[in-house]
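Protocol step 4 of 6: structure prediction from sequence.
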Amino acid sequence: MKTIIIFINSLTYVKNWIDPLYPFLSKKDINIIIFHMHSLRFGDQPVSEPSIKYQSYDIGKIKIRKVILLFENLRPDAVIFFHFKSFADYMVLRITKLLNIRSIYLQHGIFCSKVFNFVTVSIVSSLKRYFFHFRQFVQFIFIKSVNIVSELNLVIRYFFNNNLKGTKYDHAILYSKYNLDYIQENFCFNEDQVKYSGFPAVQFQDQLTSTINLSKKEKRILFLQEKMIPAHTSISYDQEHKYFRTVINISVKYNFKITMRLHPRVDHEFYNKMLSDDEVNVDNHTSLYDQILSADIIIGNMSTALFAAVINKKPIITIFYPGFKPLTDIFDKIAIKAPNYNSLEKIFQSPDKWAEKLNIYDDFIDKYIGGNNTYEYQAQTILDLI
């Protein structure tokens, strides 16, 4: 049996990123172990239990020698990363280099203008995190087998110049060639170091061609919440609710049945209570893919969830939070843009124009999404590397 360690910043990522891969990896006798830093990011804040139980270790606050000892005892065949611009990922990557363990970066989202920026949710939480990161880095550079000058040089280039060439991942699994072009200047991967799996929308290939027959002739909207607070905008929760309510009321006015799917990394209990009196069905239990299949049109911002809508040739409306500045413009050409609520009404008044955008979806898929859009294929790509 082979062992892989999947490193994530917090346990909130398990359900959407790791659980779908689990069936395909486990049946090939792959033992999955999760390393995370949940306590460092969220303290004692609870997290929903993953649907599948994994052996996991919180390495956020422990000494780097103990982390290295864990790696040595577990003897993984590979470590999989979902991020590359995180000091936590950098430290774990340096350990894989020290111990000669294969490292694999697995793309999980859209590359945008801030992909090489460090994310700062708040100054206090960032200072707290970086205190522990800095402490672990100092511990690392004083390990006997580490060249202190070389490590300082690497971290300076990484932190200040976005130069990841000196300590790049052994392999990258990306959606498409475009995504390699986006990061290649900073990584300089060789051709044989990169594999393409496409954006995984469903688990199995036959699901990509499935259809849903609705017994009722209803007009349906799927409203995909984007996580905005506090990382992406300064609006209050009351302003956010006003934004939700306006979109919902306009949709209902034009006789749409509207379903909202909450972002996986927000407090679902809080938002369910917030929206309890609004005319919307909040549903995160139904498969996202099935929700997209049953919808006539999708409202979103810039989430990869819109990729599944594109694959299924569903028209997309983008309407952003007040004051929100999009991090990427990749949806500009294919989305029906609603810069304000009046324009949203005009869109609903002209459904015959929705199909105009669908003619350019194929080029978008080739460039950004790639093919073989299943977790089964992505898991097989991982297996081919290990």
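Step 5 (inspection) to follow. Residues 207-369 form a domain with the Rossmann fold fold (CATH 3.40.50.12580).
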